[in-house]
Design brief:
- The complex is a heterodimer.
- By secondary structure, chain A is an alpha/beta fold.
- Chain A has helices spanning 2-7, 10-28, 47-56, 68-92, 97-107, 133-141, 175-181, 201-218, 234-239, 245-256, 270-273, 296-304, and strands spanning 127-131, 148-151, 166-168, 171-173, 186-190, 223-227, 264-267.
- Chain A folds into 2 domains: 2-62, no CATH class; 121-304, SGNH hydrolase (Rossmann fold).
- Chain B is an all-alpha fold.
- In chain B, helix 9 (168-202) runs antiparallel to helix 10 and helix 9 (168-202) runs antiparallel to helix 17.
- Classes of the chains: A alpha/beta, B mainly alpha.
- Chains A and B meet through helix 2, helix 3 and helix 6 of A and helix 1, helix 9 and helix 19 of B.
């Protein structure tokens, strides 16, 4: 009789069974399929990783257990090794001194690096902006009406080429398709805050540099602007172990190194929106991460004063 | 520890329930009392002492004060009552309004009202003073309703404090109520709340008028599903432990006037003010002028209870304005048309909630200027089509919120709840809740996607 009554408690039973079995699954996969999810056993049951997996398209039977950023972390390690190998070669395989001097002379650029000039809004008519929610905000409130924007909330360099987030004639296409469809004069790229906390800075840079190389390949004549990641406000920076300005600066320094002064330029809009300490000015933001709609003008003005005019030879 | 966290649902609660049910019935109050204090300590640390002191002090006051109605009340009762009320409202005043403390002890607004009601009822001879300090402590600190209500009267749980049984069927019913409340919070409130956040991010000066209204509706739904969901979870938890808590929300958004709305919204708070302020002041039996004065007192206090910032006074003032107008002439006019009266409520209440939501008077003014753009030109860059984007993102949530603001889903659920379909519905809601909780708890990128 008592058992019959208990069996009627279907939700209670389902809950207990689900809890038990899904936790088993989560526990079983904690070093393999679900290795990327960190579970604090004190506060979180193991089944949480199963649900997180569903969200990311990872199932217990999934073969591909590596996250998109882990691949880049691996690639970065490989590049690091190759670099070391090259240095080792430089050091131990003697190159005739004369030859080395020739190489050095060749490396000196023929032209002086191009200088930034002030431009007007027409400058952006053949430009494309690629980025995350910050760039979405620039699209919505920057008033750059003739410019192409391919940006979406949460975009990051790891998913940049796999997700169909660009729209052409009402069709969702990948960035590669979008960049193949039309020729652009300038590419503005600002990305890198969503990647924080996922993977290493080296892996991030590997993916970032690969993306820039891809831009170059798909748009051989465009001037590429790699933009420094916009900082966060002090309150956020001081209280967040991941999304803080030290981390952003570290990434920005590495991004800046990609500039060649010829057709890739580094511009950092932070000088237009940050205070003396280098934090995003608290008056410009509500959530400490994004500019108010009415403040995007500062970014636009900054861009207007940092145009590049290519020497037509 | 919020109810909609894994820590509460899958750590604290199961451990507590096991201890609770293996304990002999006689000792269960002590277990519940101890469990509630632990629950409170996890969240608030030392403020638990304030809570424990409140139990002890009121226990003693109650014991010393109580006299049966036929014994009559003397001077001593009056003095003791005043002292007890000072002891209860003093800390509330100190933490909430004096400006001397920047942190508010968790649930103090709720438990102060609960214990004050107890003391007044003892004074009135309506209930005898509780003889057991543990029982009184169990009542006051009970973790299901400690933090966010409902404001349970002692008389409602008195019987269950001395005797209660939990049958498997009632336990199951409690779990189901808990799941449905969790769904209201996690599936609707937390998600539609993102729209309100986004509007803050854009800045009020830059939103279009349609978006300003969408934001007001979204916030209204968020507040309702958050609060009503929490109350439902409390009621469900209460059932699982053998208690029956009063209903706190009865589909407020289907009301036809602001007056009716506030009879359906946070019912146990309205009941408290009626019982312990409005009626003792004479209610509506002492003439029109006095009635309006009494309403003024009640709504000033209601506003203050919610917070001490200036916007709460604006909010309370707006409510008072509409209720007075309704009492004077508006109700009569509204009665003529059902459609018009619903429309009136659906437009007025979100405007009041906006005042409730924005603590800074200047920014509140900016928001209102966007809702009613005929008075002021926008100060920022306005993207006229911004609302289309957010409508695309949120229309399903709006539909869900509107649907579940009506009694219809509840009627259907009551028809099927004993059948397999009812079980399936609850199971699916539970799974969706866990899914959303999972991707937002451990994964900082769900809610912090930039």
């Amino acid at each position: 009789m008592a058992i019959k009554k208990i069996l009627k408690c279907k939700i209670t039973i389902l809950l207990l069974l689900g809890w038990f079995f899904l936790s088993l699954v989560g526990f079983w996969g904690k070093d393999t399929v679900y290795a990327r999810y960190k579970i604090n056993v004190k506060t979180t049951p193991y089944f949480v990783s199963v649900f997180e997996g569903v969200h990311d398209g990872v199932y217990p039977w999934s073969q591909n257990t590596v996250s998109s950023w882990e691949k880049w972390d691996e690639a970065a390690k490989v590049s690091e090794k190759e670099l070391m190998l090259e240095r080792w070669k430089e050091r131990y395989i003697t190159v005739p001194i004369r030859e080395a001097q020739d190489i050095q002379q060749e490396a000196v650029p023929e032209n002086e690096p191009l200088e930034f000039v002030t431009v007007d809004r027409d400058y952006f008519s053949d430009a494309i902006f690629i980025g995350d929610s910050r760039t979405v905000g620039l699209f919505e409130y920057g008033g750059l009406d003739d410019t192409t924007f391919y940006a979406t909330v949460g975009m990051n360099v790891y998913d940049l080429w796999n997700e169909a987030f660009c729209e052409i004639d009402g069709q969702k296409v990948t960035l590669e398709q979008a960049l193949t469809a039309r020729e652009y004069g300038k590419i503005y790229f600002q990305i890198g805050i969503n990647e924080m906390g996922r993977g290493t800075v080296d892996g991030f840079m590997e993916a970032y540099a690969a993306s820039v190389a891809r831009f170059r390949e798909l748009q051989p004549n465009a001037v590429i602007f790699v933009q420094g990641i916009m900082k966060v406000a002090k309150e956020k920076s001081d209280s967040d172990a991941i999304f803080n300005n030290a981390g952003i600066s570290e990434r920005n320094e590495r991004i800046a190194a990609l500039a060649d002064g010829v057709d890739i330029f580094y511009i950092d809009m932070n000088e237009a929106v940050c205070d003396e300490e280098g934090n995003l000015n608290a008056e410009l933001t509500f959530d400490n991460i994004h500019l108010f709609g009415s403040k995007y003008g500062a970014w636009v003005d900054f861009l207007l004063s940092h145009g590049i005019m290519k020497n037509e030879s | 520890m919020v109810f909609s966290s894994f820590e509460f649902l899958f750590r604290f609660l199961p451990v507590f329930l096991i201890v609770y049910f293996i304990t002999p019935k006689k000792l269960r109050n002590a277990v519940l009392f101890a469990g509630s204090l632990i629950f409170y300590t996890i969240g608030e640390k030392w403020y638990v002492l304030l809570l424990a002191a409140s139990v002890l002090v009121n226990y003693l006051f109650g014991r010393f004060m109580y006299r049966r109605i036929d014994e009559g009340k003397g001077r001593r009762q009056k003095i003791l009552l005043i002292c007890a009320l000072l002891c209860n409202f003093g800390p509330l005043f100190f933490f909430k309004y004096s400006g001397l403390s920047d942190k508010l002890p968790l649930g103090i607004s709720f438990y102060t009202f609960q214990i004050a009601a107890y003391i007044i009822d003892v004074y009135r001879g309506k209930i005898p003073a509780e003889q057991s300090a543990i029982s009184l402590g169990t009542y006051l600190t009970m973790f299901p309703q400690l933090v966010a209500g409902p404001i349970v009267n002692y008389s409602e749980v008195r019987k269950n404090l001395s005797f209660r049984t939990v049958s498997p069927g009632r336990f199951e019913e409690g779990i189901r109520t808990l799941v449905l409340g969790l769904g209201a919070k996690v599936i609707v409130a937390d998600r539609i709340g993102m729209l309100w956040n986004n509007i803050g991010m854009i800045g009020y000066e830059s939103i279009s008028t349609p978006l300003a209204w969408m934001g007001a509706f979204a916030y209204s739904l968020e507040l309702y599903f958050d609060f009503a969901g929490y109350s439902m979870m409390a009621i469900g938890l209460g059932k699982m432990l053998g208690f029956e808590f009063p209903v706190n929300f009865r589909f407020p958004y289907i009301s036809k006037s602001v007056t009716e709305f506030w009879r359906r919204w946070h019912i146990t708070l309205g009941r408290w003010f009626r019982e312990y302020v409005y009626i003792p002041l004479g209610g509506n039996r002492k003439g029109r002028v006095r009635t309006f004065f009494n309403m003024f007192v009640v709504w000033s206090l209601t506003a203050l209870w919610h917070g001490s910032a200036v916007n709460f006074l604006i909010w309370g003032g707006m409510l008072l304005f509409f209720m007075t107008a309704e009492k004077l002439f508006l109700l009569k006019a509204l009665e003529k048309s059902r459609i018009l009266s619903h429309l009136y409520l659906i437009l007025v209440i979100p405007v009041t909630w906006v005042a409730f939501a924005i603590p800074d008077a200047g920014r509140l003014g900016v928001y209102f200027s966007r809702m009613f753009p005929f008075f002021a030109k926008p100060a920022g860059v306005v993207n006229q089509w911004d609302w289309l984007k957010y409508l695309q993102d949120c229309w399903q949530l709006f539909l869900l919120g509107i649907l579940f603001s009506t009694p219809l889903p509840n009627l259907i659920y009551n028809k099927i709840k004993r059948k397999a379909a009812g079980t399936a519905v609850v199971a699916v809601i539970l799974a969706i809740c866990i899914y959303y909780m999972a991707i937002s708890s451990n994964n900082p990128f769900m809610y912090f996607n930039f």
